[in-house]
Amino acid sequence: MTSPLSFAVLGPVRAWRGASELDLGTRQQRLILALLLARAGGAVSVAEFVDLLWESDPPPSAVNVVHRHIGTLRRRFEPGLPTRAAGSVLVRDGAEYRLRIDDESLDLLRFRRLVARAAAASDESAVQVYRQALALWHDRCAAGLHAASRAHPEFAAVDGERFAAVRAAADAALRAGCAHLVLPAIRLAAEDEPLDEQLQARLLLALAADGRRAEALAAYADVEHRLAEELGIAPGGVLRAARDSLHDQDTPVPVGVEPPAQLPPDHPYFAGRREVMAAARALLAGDPRTTALVIDGMPGVGKTTLAVHLSHRLAARYPDGQLHADLRGFDSGDAVMSPAEALRGFLWSLGVAPAAIPAELHAQAGLYRSILAERRMLILLDNCRDWDQIRHLLPGTGGSLVIATSRRRITGVAGAAGAHALHLDLLTDAEARELLARRLGDAVAADPAAVGEIIARCGRLPLALALVATRSVGRPGLSLPAVVGELAGADGRLSGFGDAHADLEAIFSWSYRALTPEAARLFRLLPLHPAGELSTQAAAALGGLPARFARGLLGELGAQMLVRPGGGRWRMHDLLRAYAVELGEEHDDAAERDAAVTRVYDYYELSAYAAHLLLLPQVALPEPEPSGQEVTGRRFSGRDDAMAWFAAEQRVLTEVVARAVEHGRPRTAWRIALAMQNFFQDTAQFRQWAAVVGTGLAAAGDDPAARALLHRSLAGAYYFLADLDGGLSHLRQAGAIFERLGLRTEQGHVENNIAEIRLDQQCYGDALHHAQAARALFHAGDNVRGATTALLAIARAQGGLGRHAAALDMFVRAQRQFEAIGDLHGVGTTQSWLAHTCSMIGDLPQALAVWQQAIDTFRGAGAAHHTAQVLVAVGDCHAAGGAAEPAGQAWREALAELHGTDSPMARQIRDRLTLLR
């Protein structure tokens, strides 16, 4: 007895006889079958087939070709059928053809039956039935057979049935309070139809109902931008109403998430400034729309001290926390913080996962303002350069406040709604005396004449007064007249900061001469660091010192010459930095200064290489040569430690890449750029990745191997920025260089990367070609791991072509090969793909069993991060099926694998558990 036939058109076109999948032949034959299946048993004319295959320019033989294709399909469905026999499956009806199929043999008919059932059921029951119906969809109707921009009307109509079902399922789930059950289906549909405002509105509402309001706001910002860019229109009423509903929900801070508290410590000896403080309070009291206070004034006048003090006094008014960023507006070159960099840091602090942060500045700002619209927060922005740097960081509406500082009057503040400028001048004589009295105690009242002389020599500048007070406190036996005498004996001026109010160099030199010789030398070398802020280890490398000794010297400097912004880092005030530059040029010869620069660049190159090895690098980076200055790189305890270091040093490393060439170190530039790739990838900083590696590519000059590696890295950045054509261009440039150099293994990596992109473009045949080419190159180079990795891409391509049985077999083969070479990470990755494929074809018991194997493998390899990733997938699978208890158990195990860290993944898991509770 012949096994029954079954067909699928809700995704790639497929057919089976019993459990065996049929080979459906050429693209034209599959298109013919697709149209017959989309008609679901209805008749299709030969003329329609001709239009489908050739559009407007069919050949003279078109009708005959259609008949040949139909004959071939008939024999595939009924083997042994004579050449001109009519058959019983694909039958002719006059000048038309149709398939004889029943409700159970075609996924489209099963889908329609389930949707009809759901429409007649109660909301709770309907959601379950809709889930069954939507699970039948694996892609667009007849996926892979037509251009994404132009689907046949028949296929588009079937797609329309899916989108209508998604909308109905979303509405039922929202009414029943179980939006999470259909959220995956809504996501997929919204991705397929990014300009469908009805679908996008449902996505926003479902995300919000599932406790993902930040993600919902990001989705709105993205679709708003798409509509403007692609159609030139603003969101319609339905989408705006969905967005507005997000703001009506009274949940200012997610449950279980502590509000950020990032204010620097208040100054213990703050004095004066009563008029400015009163003016700030009056503005806040008089204008409820006030969203920003921008304090300007000369360097050293105490802007930051005032802003921090004012922020602490106002913090209680803003219960949802405080954010802080030093925008470095007056640092040199690329050290200035961009608005996108500041927004990314703020969004992380507000609980937005890195992968959910939009890439475009406008979308980041939109998401940021949307979150602030629900909260009352205080944002401190220090060292702002101009209006363009801060305008994206201002809250739009709501009850949040920005306090910003700048050394220049910022044009644009006066015209911005809710923004006010405050000018900070020198201390009055009374305020200066109060400042000294707080630091020096009763001695100030005992000798007012000497105090007056000190104030005059300091020009009433708070920075100068603070330095004198700190120095005096450090020498208890020094009388105030003696302080005056020492100040009078300190001569000179500070180039570039000459000021009629204060002889700053005299005051600085007075503090400088009190340093030990070792601390004084380190002080002179600190400006040679490529950025304004550095760690203790970097300072040790700069000075050629043991870390413990450097820590002691920094402590000595920190009492009066440095500030500590937090995180074990050190920073100089700009005025002191300028003074240290003058001292260095005067006292240290060029050889010693060059050696210091060499040491610190060695430190960053060696440390970046060591850190990148822990992040499972995709681009093979040459090991740097040992330092000729006996500098060693930082040691890391594991992946999380390496990621934290990259995060802390990101700005410094970016500056090193930008400046290394001018110091004669192009290799340092491109090697550090490559070392940062995986950090940028894991933190979703794709534009920064492209920018830094692009700088590295410019530094590589005529080094062909370096250029090829950098082109391959840039391809990855372009891939994640969704510029797949740009990614392919860089890969082809890399491949051409590797071919000229005869580096077959590297060619194999490029071919495999091209296969990955073609898989994403759903060009499965081309992906298969490149993956097979990669496998051949790896085999030629006896690179077993590379060949096995290429086999994974081949398996994915086979799955995309609808050959799931072949794909599953290849995954099993790949797993055995990884086992044979002892590559536990490869084994675990293969098991993860195998489980994913099982879940895609609906075999959830097998998927869960293989996921457990992947968990055991990754645990055996000590790969906690990957173990956690698999456990999250298991939990998500259980949650999608409504099984709350096993979902929670899997997520808790994932969190335990991360050992309580505050990584983005850990925060996402905690969010899931909070929602579950």
Helix content: 55-70%
Distance, first to last CA = 54 Å
Poorly predicted sequence stretches spanning 5 or more consecutive residues = 249-257, 491-502
How many beta-strand elements? 14
Major sheet: arrangement of strands: 8-9-10-7-11
Mean pLDDT over the residues:
82
The number of distinct helices, counting runs of at least 4 residues, comes to 41
User: In CATH, what is the class of the domain at 274-423?
Assistant: Alpha Beta
CATH architecture of the domain at 274-423: 3-Layer(aba) Sandwich
Q: Which superfamily, in CATH terms, is the homologous superfamily of the domain at 274-423?
A: P-loop containing nucleotide triphosphate hydrolases
* Biggest beta sheet summary: 5 strands, parallel
CATH topology of the domain at 274-423: Rossmann fold
Radius of gyration: 33 Å
Content-based structural category = alpha/beta
Task: Report the sheet-strand fraction.
Answer: 5-15%
**What gross morphology would you assign?**
elongated
Overview of the structural elements:
- This is SARP family transcriptional regulator.
- Residues 1-101 form the OmpR/PhoB-type domain.
- The protein has 917 residues and is α/β, with parallel strands linked by helices.
- Among the domains are: 5-99, Winged helix-like DNA-binding domain superfamily/Winged helix DNA-binding domain (Arc Repressor Mutant, subunit A, Orthogonal Bundle), CATH 1.10.10.10; 128-247, Alpha Horseshoe (Serine Threonine Protein Phosphatase 5, Tetratricopeptide repeat); 274-423, Rossmann fold, CATH 3.40.50; 429-512, no CATH class; 517-588, Orthogonal Bundle (Arc Repressor Mutant, subunit A); 823-917, Alpha Horseshoe (Serine Threonine Protein Phosphatase 5, Tetratricopeptide repeat).
- It starts with a strand and ends with a helix.
- Residues 249-257 and 491-502 have low confidence and may be disordered.
